[in-house]
Write a structure and sequence with these properties.
Blueprint: H1 25-33, H2 47-57, H3 60-72, H4 79-89, H5 92-105, H6 112-117, H7 120-128, H8 138-153, H9 164-179, H10 195-198, H11 210-219, H12 224-243, H13 254-260, E1 262-268, E2 274-276, E3 286-292, E4 295-301, E5 316-328, E6 334-339, E7 343-348, H14 355-366, H15 369-380, H16 386-389, E8 394-395, E9 405-412, H17 420-430
Antiparallel strand pairs: 1-9, 2-3, 3-4, 4-8, 5-6, 5-7, 5-9
Amino acid sequence: MFSGSWKESSMNVIELEIPDQNIDVEALQVAFGSLYRDDVLINPSRVVALLAAACMLQLDGLIQQCGETMKETITAQTVCGYYNSAGTYGLDSVKKKCLEWLLNNLMTHQSVGLFKELSINLMKQLISSSNLFVLQVEMDVYTALKKWMFLQLVPSWNGSFKQVLTEADAWFAERRREFGGDGAFLESAQGSAFLPVFAHLRLQYIISDLASARIVERDALLPSEWLSSVYKQQWFAMLRAEQDNDIGPQEINKEELEGNSMRCGRKLAKDGDYCWRWTGFNFGLDLLVTYTNRYIIFKRNTLNQPCSGSVSLQPRRSIAFRLRLASFDGSGKMICSRTTGYQILTLEKDQDVGGDFLWLFLCCRGLGALGWELWAGLRMCQRYKPEVKEQIVMNLDSRLLMFPLYICCNFLYTSPEKRADSEAQLENLEG
């Protein structure tokens, strides 16, 4: 360029146009400097600009180094910027890592800044996933979406995250008054862009709780057709459970579990003994979850109910489930995790899943060699069939256990029905 018959050979100053606004002088200096060094110290606050410069100059080694830095420094403050940059510059592994972080931490690392940054398309991916780590119940996902939509529509709002729900409720109430109570907010000009996100809420697990159903009706965010459809769907499911003797799923239907299972979770702040249930009517199957002695146990409860109609008295009921647990560091990075995978579990009335079994196991273990012989004998008895052992949901290795511990479950209580109409409706909404 400088010695040939080109325009630049006679110029004292050459101006280069950089077609990427992420690239600045400092990023170019580091990128050019990397040509003369084996290693470059990358500041996480500068990694996006450096990645942009490295991609323009096609420096593969530096691009890879930027990607590794990004994967190691994902936080609530960086995750959206990294996700968008990874999409722009073709770092699929970084994009995947950011999506995993959001699925694991969306419900626990909520902030005004994060909710303002989350795009509609990204939020739709998160809400539609069965891998979303839900704490408490599906109603909490609805509440999070309400806060997020408010911050998307009013990005100038600044305040503490504790105030967001109150402000959001007041803002949407004002919109209802403007509309005169006619129609749902998501059907308005302002709300229509958010329809594809809210369409992935699993409403059947929201309207199963009276307080939650009343809040959803009061908010008037969702189209009335959605709610009438899910009320009808749940009514028929209840009739099938009560009159058609539907005892629950009999085989693993992964597609059904991925798209329609109940998502719920719990945080265990420290080691100890815990017992809980998740709210809502689940077709008469009252499932108690216990954490004790580093075992997680499911129990079907039929005796301690205030209303006989709230519990099924069928001798056996089946559920499809997946249980996951994980520990995270302060930035949301996963330290350890375990999963049962998808399983079918059949429970008898008030059968303690692994309760007697666990007690016997612990007693036998305390007797040393004689205890292990006794345990082997019990295993061969008809009363303690091999499948009983599988009813202990999870035995946790104390070496891998770190608190706080997050437990997330997916449940399917009834046999799947064909949902061709609802799936077609969802595709039309997304279209």
